[in-house]
Amino acid sequence: MERVYHYKAVDKMGRSVRDSLMIEDEIALKRLLAQDDLFLLDYKPQSMLEQTIEKLSFKPESIHLFTTRMASGLQVGIPLGVILENLIEDQTGYFKQVLKGVEHHVKSGKTLAESLRMYSDYFSETYCTIVNSGQGSGRLGETFFHLGKLYEQQKENRNKIRKAKAQPMFYITVLLVFTVAASIWILPNFVKIFESSKIQIPLPTQILLGVGELITQGGIFILLTLVGLGMFWKLSVQKSNGVQYLLDHILLKIPIIRSIIRYSETSLFVHFWHLFALSGVPLVQTLESLADVPKNQVVRESIRRVQGNVSKGMSVSRAFNEQPFFADNWVFRELVKIGDDNKEMESILPKIFQDHDQAMIESIDRLMPWINKLLLAISGIVVGMFVAGIFLPILMMFEVAKNL
Questions:
Q1: Which residues are within 8 A (CB) of 51 and not within 5 positions of it... i.e. 6 or more apart?
Q2: What is the number of H-type helices and E-type strands within the chain?
Q3: Sheet bearing 16-23, strands edge to edge
Q4: Which of 18, 69, 97, 323 could form a disulfide linkage to 302, CB 3.0–4.6 angstroms apart?
Q5: Could you tell me whether strands 3-10 and 39-45 are parallel, antiparallel, or unpaired per DSSP bridges?
Q6: Strands 39-45 and 16-23: what pairing?
Q7: β-strand 3-10 against 16-23: which pairing, if any?
């Protein structure tokens, strides 16, 4: 694992140089500085805590910016080394150290793709494979241009999904705050008025008081339990392929959710397939590289089966038709068949992902009214409970007063 080293060195003229670099170890640091006629005087590796904190501050948008600027520079003929130097100057924080490391590996003789692979936390294997193909075909600038377009489209899709989730999350947050505040502070003080009159507190009021008591007395335990379950889910359940496959399979059975997953996963897969096709990568290698692109395990397994069948000589359209996930998608199925039959797959693929990007947004728009109706129903139940919990004791007190 590479670490960031802060170092102090001197050049041949005796001038002091202070900088930092992400590199394998101190031996590699000395060797690299010697290549630049620098003599290492002192160094200090960055602590793992500092490195972890800086990693957490990394923004994925930095990869998009790196990609688009690489495309702009390469397409006008600027040398790779010059582009990297300027990108390093424009960056701050941990990603700057990553780019310094990339520059170091390029200078030492590695290809750009090999250098990017050294930082797999930031540059995925699919990304590096596409860059390697572009470099091998002599179309690296064009490859980065299409990668940048892909990142831009994915960013737009994420923003639309985030915007669609914002309203439900706001409703849920307000509802939780209202429930907690009313159960802890409002109802207990209100009920004290009626306890002296020895009126039996009705069931809705008792339930709400019980919720408030549970939160006040066991709130920390509940919070720790939720955090523990979240960590267990993240570290164990999500890393269990069997459990994740089952959950992903269940999601594909829910009508509207199935449509969103189908269009988003297929669009992302076809976007990358198109990039590989432009770079001249053979289809079997493309499918093998793209098997891990989708997040849904069912889709991943379907692509692996397609790749296995194509490698045995089966036609592309038939291989996809044998997988239920793709066979149920008539637009994908028919367009792939046309591209396969006419040997025009490279020109057909953009039509597929453009259609699916639009279809995904339409599916989200269809889902939102149902979510709003569900939230409205839940809000009605909660508010109804509070109304009953507050006004039932008042009505019962009026009844007692009438009988006096």
A1: 3, 4, 94
A2: 18, 3
A3: 16-23, 3-10, 39-45
A4: 323
A5: antiparallel
A6: unpaired
A7: antiparallel
Q: Where are the domains of the chain?
A: 3-55, 60-123, 138-404
How many CB atoms are closer than 10 A to CB 153? 16
Q: Residue 3: what are its φ and ψ, rounded to 5°? A: -130, 160
- Of the two residues 51 and 270, the one the predictor is more confident about is 270
Rounded Cα gap, residues 46 and 49, in angstroms: 8
CA pair distance 109, 374, nearest whole angstrom: 59
Q: Give the residues across from 40 on adjacent strands.
A: 9
Residues paired with residue 16 on neighbouring β-strands, in sequence order: 10
Gap between the Cα atoms of 384 and 228, Å rounded: 33
Q: How far apart are CA 276 and CA 182, in angstroms?
A: 57
Angle, helix 297-311 to helix 241-251, in steps of 10 degrees: 100
* Cβ 99 vs Cβ 91: under 8 Å: yes
Q: Measuring CA to CA, which residue among 376, 375, 385, 393 is closest to residue 182?
A: 385
* Average pLDDT estimate for 351-360: 88
Looking at the chain, the whole-number percentage of residues with pLDDT higher than 70 is: 87
Q: Which residues contact 32 (CB under 8 A, 6 or more apart)?
A: 21, 23, 104, 108
**pLDDT at residue number 321:** 92
pTM, full prediction: 0.70
How far is the C-alpha of 119 from the C-alpha of 117, rounded, in Å? 5
pLDDT at 274 over 70: yes
Separation between Cα atoms, residue 39 and residue 360, nearest integer Å: 57
The β-bridge partners of 4 are 22
Instruction: Enter the tokens of residue 292.
Output: 């891990």
Look at residue 237 in the predicted model and tell me its pLDDT. 60
- pLDDT tens, residue by residue, 171-192: 778 777 777 777 677 667 666 6
The residue to which tokens 């702009």 are assigned: 72
Contact 384, 198 (CB under 8 A): no
Fold of 3-55: Ubiquitin-like (UB roll) (3.10.20)
d(CA 336, CA 356): 13
User: 107: which residues sit within 8 A by CB, 6+ positions away?
Assistant: 35, 81
Q: Identify the DSSP state of 328.
A: T
